[in-house]
Amino acid sequence: MTSPTIRELFAARRQPTLSLEFYPPKDARGFDLLGQSIERMRPVHPDFVTCTYGAGGSNREFSFAAWELLIRLGLTPVVAHLTCVGASRADLESQIHRIYDAGIRNIMALRGDPPRGETAFTPAPDGLAHASDLVALIKSLHPDICCGVAGYPETHPEAVSPADDLRHLKEKIDAGADFVNTQLFFHNDVYFQFMDAARAIGITAPILPGLMPVASPGQLDRAIGFSRATAPAALRDALQVPDPEAARTAGIQWMVNQINGLIAGGAPGIHLYILNQAHTVLDPRLTACLAHWRSPSTRHADL
Ligand SMILES: Cc1cc2nc3c(=O)[nH]c(=O)nc-3n(C[C@H](O)[C@H](O)[C@H](O)COP(=O)(O)OP(=O)(O)OC[C@H]3O[C@@H](n4cnc5c(N)ncnc54)[C@H](O)[C@@H]3O)c2cc1C
After folding, report:
1. Domain boundaries 6-294, corresponding CATH code
2. Containing H/E element for 12?
3. Which residues are catalytic?
């Protein structure tokens, strides 16, 4: 039996959704640890989970194994990420069929990053150049697959301009994408401005904000390094304390404040980049915040 699509979940939701992102481990011990993390975070009851696709597509078997583990442990629906990196159209077709045959009906359709040290993305021979091409391919093979796509509140690093980037996001929606999952950000203003700009050019799909907890200045720098998100000085100051536990608490509190602001402002849900770490989602400040917003007795202006 297949689980619902994210499109169906959004249509039926009465509360904001909660989704968690995992990445595939690279060895048996990593899979054991992931299994233990999943068991520990079971009480959090995410509405859906996502799992990334190895950079360069090189680790695709680990991605498949991780999707299967999530399904086996009942953490569904699963959104399988897929990128165009290093894959011909025929390769991608066979990956899409394989995902479908595994019972997965949700794919995050991504172009992927250029290899390390390169600034431009070069499609594989007979491959696809843009995520919008991948959305179109998925929908042509299996129209019942629900497609998510990436959105960049602070603009994709390769984009010519914010407006151009947004136009390309609209192309992904026009190709059939059902929802947008954003790159992480630390200022809520950038999400709301992005929402307004997206709505202004006719993007009506749900735009799910992605947040990542950071527990030290080093983690903040790493998050900024790959996402190009801007770091608020107040967050950096709060993390710059000698006690690691105090820094972790400050990072969680920043995220809780972001969640409160995002949901109060009408975000359809919250997507957490948790890096396979159960302790983040089990933090009492975070669980209390999520329990409040996900309680049937909490009234939401937009629902
Ligand atoms: C939520 C999320 C999940 C992710 N998961 C993964 C993952 O699992 N594995 C992984 O390797 N990476 C992942 N990434 C990173 C992603 O692969 C990179 O950000 C990548 O550089 C762009 O992918 P995209 O799908 O946004 O590409 P696209 O939408 O194709 O956009 C890439 C760039 O090309 C431009 N562009 C788009 N269409 C056109 C066009 N027709 N003509 C000219 N320019 C165009 C865009 O403006 C943008 O600058 C994820 C990112 C996010 C936000």
Report:
1. 3.20.20.220
2. helix 6-12
3. 21
